[in-house]
Amino acid sequence: MLSVSFHDSDDPSRRYQILERVGAGSFGEVLRAVNTTNGQLVALKKVLLRKPDKGLPDNVLREIKLLQIVDHPNVVKLQEVFPQGASLMLAFEYCNTDLAQILRHYPHAMEHHVAKGILQQMLRGLAACHAERVLHRDLKPSNVLVEKGGVVKLADFGLARRDDKAGPYTHTVATRWYRAPELLYGARVYGTGVDMWAVGCIFAELLGKGPLIPGEHDIDQLYCVINLLGTPTEAKWPGMKDLPDYHKITFPEMTGTPLQEARHNVVSLARVCLQKCRRRTFLGRCIYTRGTRESS
């Protein structure tokens, strides 16, 4: 159960012994610590409150609330929240590594049974999120944690939000290489498809030991998507011409790249999986436009 402490005479921060700093970002920093009351390792996310007089930032409130809603073995668990000076501390269960680190140190393309196991766990965690109408909106290898026993956990819900099926939402979410094409075209209404697209990109990266669509900027990212999958049509992607930025960006007609050429070392079983995902890509797979919806 999540513990939230704001007026506790027993300072919660005293329960934690800081061991090391393991990461940092625009929000603040992440610390590895041990809970001295039970000996468990935790990851303390220290969020700097730049305007404490105005309360907690919306994204922090959303992250806390949504992690209270989603309870699943493949989603990181938020254990406690407490203030510390001008910061807010979020205590998460500790995981040893993440997919980004594993990919950096893996000597070759991942064995298909390992990649398949990781994919299955990611999808289970994502299914739990989507069942509660929670969109993660920033899935990428560094946000997929891995425990010692190989258990995969989705993490970093800083950009997550509840899907109210109405919008408008911001389209400036997700890291570029994992950003769905509807977001690149400026969609303000979308759904679970943006997460499914990211999972597909991560799966391909596990198999190919490198990002599938490494665009250098947003327009180049969209070019790389179309170069891989082929130029979409209104028949395959209903409503695409209604997307806010569709008419602002023009590319030459492209037929697409066979997946065996895009990822030469993808084994046949995984290639079939990716091809099935590819066929669904512009056939109403994960696309949410103004007139097109999909259920989670």
From TrEMBL:
Select a single GO molecular function from the record's annotations and give it. ATP binding
Provide one Gene Ontology cellular component.
nucleus
The residues listed in the UniProt record as binding ATP, with positions renumbered to this chain, are: 45
Reactions that this protein is recorded to catalyse: L-seryl-[protein] + ATP = O-phospho-L-seryl-[protein] + ADP + H(+); L-threonyl-[protein] + ATP = O-phospho-L-threonyl-[protein] + ADP + H(+)
The EC code for this enzyme is 2.7.11.22
The alphabetized UniProt keywords are: ATP-binding, Kinase, Nucleotide-binding, Serine/threonine-protein kinase, Transferase
Q: Which domain of life is it from?
A: Eukaryota
Q: Does this UniProt record's set of keywords contain Kinase? A: yes
- Top-level EC class, please? transferase
InterPro entries to which the protein is assigned, alphabetical: CDK, Kinase-like_dom_sf, Prot_kinase_dom, Protein_kinase_ATP_BS, Ser/Thr_kinase_AS
Presence of the UniProt keyword rRNA-binding in the record:
no
Record-annotated Protein kinase domain positions? 16-296
Q: Which PANTHER family match?
A: CELL DIVISION PROTEIN KINASE, CYCLIN-DEPENDENT KINASE 20
Family to which this protein belongs: Belongs to the protein kinase superfamily. CMGC Ser/Thr protein kinase family. CDC2/CDKX subfamily.
Specify the protein name: cyclin-dependent kinase
Per the UniProt record, the lineage of the source organism begins with: Eukaryota, Viridiplantae, Chlorophyta, Pyramimonadophyceae, Pyramimonadales
